[in-house]
Amino acid sequence: MKILIVFNHPAPYKVALFNGLAKEHDVHVIFERYKARNRNKSFYNEANYKFTLHKIKGIGIGNENHLSWGVVKHLKKHKYDLIIMNGYSTFTEMLALRYLKRNNIPYAFYINGGIVAHKESKLYKKIKTYFISGARYYFSPALKANEYLEYYGAPKELIFNYPYSTVYEKDIVETAKSPEQKQSYWDKLKVKGENFTICITSFIKRKNNLSLIKAWKKVDKKHALILVGEGKEEKLYRHYIKEHELQNVFMLPFAPKNQVFEYLSYSDNAIYISNYDIYGHVINEALAHGLNVLTNTNMVAAHYAIKNGENGFVMQKGENINDYINKLFVSNFFDHARESAVTIEDSIDVHLKILGEKL
User: Fold this and answer.
1) What are the chain's domains?
2) What does the alpha-carbon distance between residue 208 and residue 212 come to, in Å, rounded to a whole number?
3) Do residues 170 and 191 lie in contact, with contact meaning Cβ atoms separated by under 8 Å?
4) Taking a C-beta distance cutoff of 8 angstroms, is the pair 92, 116 a contact?
5) What is residue 35's predicted lDDT score, i.e. its pLDDT?
6) Are 65 and 91 spatial neighbours (Cβ–Cβ below 8 Å)?
7) With pLDDT > 90 as the criterion, what percentage of the chain qualifies?
8) CA atoms within a 13 Å half-sphere pointing along the CA-CB vector of 175
9) Lowest pLDDT segment from 59-73, 151-165, 255-269
10) Whole-model pTM?
11) Please, are residues 138 and 149 in contact by the beta-carbon 8 Å criterion?
């Protein structure tokens, strides 16, 4: 099958997926831009493309938006058995979707996650419904994300679910590090403690990290909280930590994927309590490293990946976070966490099955 995929930027896990699909199909890809402005340069570490890449000219706007007629021009010149549009959030994608709709060209609509915005204006909902509805097929990473598609006009029977992952099978840890190994590792990074909770995050309001830091005021000093990332709220976090003399809260700079996975392998727990997150890869990455995970219902991945009390905890709105933090410290979900993690290989297999049997 000759397939065209339009995606915003070459995220490494997307490149891995497209490479996997290219083993059985003639895959062509258009990346609107080659770096999202809000992504660290080291995020883009995969350039081994096994698919056919088509470059277009355009204008980058803000962090991820893009304006170009390049996709439309390409579609006018080339024919495909399947066209996959990954979202509608950029001007380039909107122009391409409008062209496909007006010319009755069938296509699949692909999402990486989604949360229904019940408080949005009628006009905004109408616009979103126009761009989301009308596809021949839909790809969604979780049943919770299906609700988003259905709300904006996607027929339930046309939605196919796939496992979403940023980890390979080789990344899933086999054995847990000993407490002594963990303490020795973190001690070299000047992180003191006996138990280590990590949060791989962006230092922005949406991630709700300040609430987590505030909760740590009530936590015994032997339990270390480690925030890894970068962003606009970094000074705010550091000021709060200093003002309240939180000697067991530590901040480390953004780290590339291999370093992040090393951090995870030497940690005990992971906490993610975003105000909202259209998916949340970090949850599956923590599971792959056998960590006790605490998250909340605002993250789509929580609904798919976490079985409350079996491989982690999912906090409901209004519940006390410190009650759950204390549960983490006495839990050991290592085996159940690893077994529940999904891989890029899993994702490739399911995509190939959908392409071979359903479409």
Assistant:
1) 2-165+344-358 (3.40.50.2000), 169-340 (3.40.50.2000)
2) 7
3) no
4) no
5) 63
6) yes
7) 90
8) 4
9) 59-73
10) 0.92
11) yes
